[in-house]
């Protein structure tokens, strides 16, 4: 008599199985019930069984959609198209913005649960953390997600100096004499405000001093002018004092009533009592385009020009084709150069043409 098959629980005649051991099925009990069978039990004929959680199929040998692994214990990545993946290793086809073998990574430049948020432009190589968007910053950017510019920088790419700064690292201040307090990023050159001059507008015009260069040097200063900060100077003959404001010669000529101080040789006014007058006898009105209608004894506007005029006497209007600006004049009050360039006349709706009639 033959011995019963070890996969069998009981045998009938000889080695023919009548019942299978726990977890087996088939004519000779040669097959194992699927891992997904509840309590490891299945029909001894065809292997059909009741499924454990996360399993599916006639024999419970498949994972429910969205699961994979030997025990279907793992969830397919959120980046898997349709939420489906290979039941053995989790590999799948990726949805938009997802990447990786299991589609569990975002494509470069994206982050978030659904990889639908764009990493900051300040992130190095535009790569950031999938969970929170944190990253390593490009130069001039700062913050956890590199959204902010470092101190002294601004602009869409944090590569511009803030207003009033210049230099490779924006380490220098523009001169106080720069119009609108803006200057060239490389060398600090700029358009000058009234009463300033020089490449960087750091000097006062001849005969001026003070923080804003609006104070006139004393008439007693010699041809060298006066100190930019204090107004001190070398005095001409008959003048004295730190700023040479004291005239030491006894007056012998009666000044005109319009004069504040006059020349004792010819009686000509050296300064006027009224800020809106100038000339030999201070009887000529300053240009109406002088700021506060104030001018020097020579008629030059000493406080600058009213809006959109330029020149020493502010009598010349800014060019008509200067681009408009948010605040202030459209052109430099010193030389009339348009601050923000000129309008493109080729786009004008009105053709400024001259009709030439041939002569016969």
TrEMBL record:
Organism: Dreissena polymorpha (Zebra mussel)
SMART domains xrefs: EGF (SM00181), EGF_Lam (SM00180)
PANTHER family referenced in this protein's UniProt entry, alphabetically: EGF-LIKE DOMAIN-CONTAINING PROTEIN, SCAVENGER RECEPTOR CLASS F
Domain Laminin EGF-like: from-to ranges: 49-80, 190-221
Name this polypeptide is given: Laminin EGF-like domain-containing protein
GO molecular function: scavenger receptor activity
Keyword entries, A-Z: EGF-like domain
């Amino acid at each position: 008599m033959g011995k019963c098959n070890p996969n069998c629980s009981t045998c009938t005649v000889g080695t023919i199985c009548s019942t299978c051991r726990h977890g087996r099925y088939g004519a000779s009990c040669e097959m194992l019930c699927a891992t997904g069978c509840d309590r490891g039990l299945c029909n001894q004929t065809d292997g059909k069984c009741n499924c454990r959680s996360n399993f599916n199929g006639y024999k419970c040998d498949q994972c429910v959609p969205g699961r994979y692994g030997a025990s279907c214990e793992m969830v397919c990545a959120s980046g898997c198209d349709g939420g489906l993946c290979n039941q053995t290793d989790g590999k799948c086809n990726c949805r938009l913005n997802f990447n990786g073998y299991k589609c569990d990574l975002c494509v470069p430049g994206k982050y978030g649960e659904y990889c639908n948020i764009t990493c900051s432009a300040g992130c190095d190589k535009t790569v950031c953390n999938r969970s929170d968007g944190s990253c390593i910053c490009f130069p001039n950017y700062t913050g956890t997600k590199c959204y902010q510019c470092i101190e002294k920088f601004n602009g869409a790419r944090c590569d511009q100096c803030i207003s009033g700064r210049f230099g490779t690292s924006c380490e220098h201040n523009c001169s106080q004499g720069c119009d609108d307090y803006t200057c060239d990023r490389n060398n600090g050159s700029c358009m000058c405000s009234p009463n300033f001059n020089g490449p960087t507008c750091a000097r006062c015009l001849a005969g001026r001093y003070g923080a804003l260069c609006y104070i006139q040097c004393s008439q007693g200063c010699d041809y060298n002018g006066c100190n930019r900060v204090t107004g001190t100077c070398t005095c001409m003959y008959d003048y004295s004092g730190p700023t040479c404001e004291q005239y030491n010669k006894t007056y012998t000529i009666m000044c005109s009533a319009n004069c504040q101080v006059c020349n004792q040789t010819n009686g000509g006014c050296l300064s006027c009592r009224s800020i809106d007058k100038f000339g030999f006898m201070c009887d000529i009105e300053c240009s109406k385009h002088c700021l506060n209608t104030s001018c020097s004894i020579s008629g030059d506007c000493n406080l600058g020009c009213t809006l959109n005029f330029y020149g020493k006497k502010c009598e010349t209007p800014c060019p008509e084709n200067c681009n408009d600006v948010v605040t202030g004049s459209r052109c430099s009050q010193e030389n009339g150069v348009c601050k923000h360039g000129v309008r493109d006349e080729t786009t004008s709706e009105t053709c400024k043409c001259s009709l030439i009639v041939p002569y016969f």
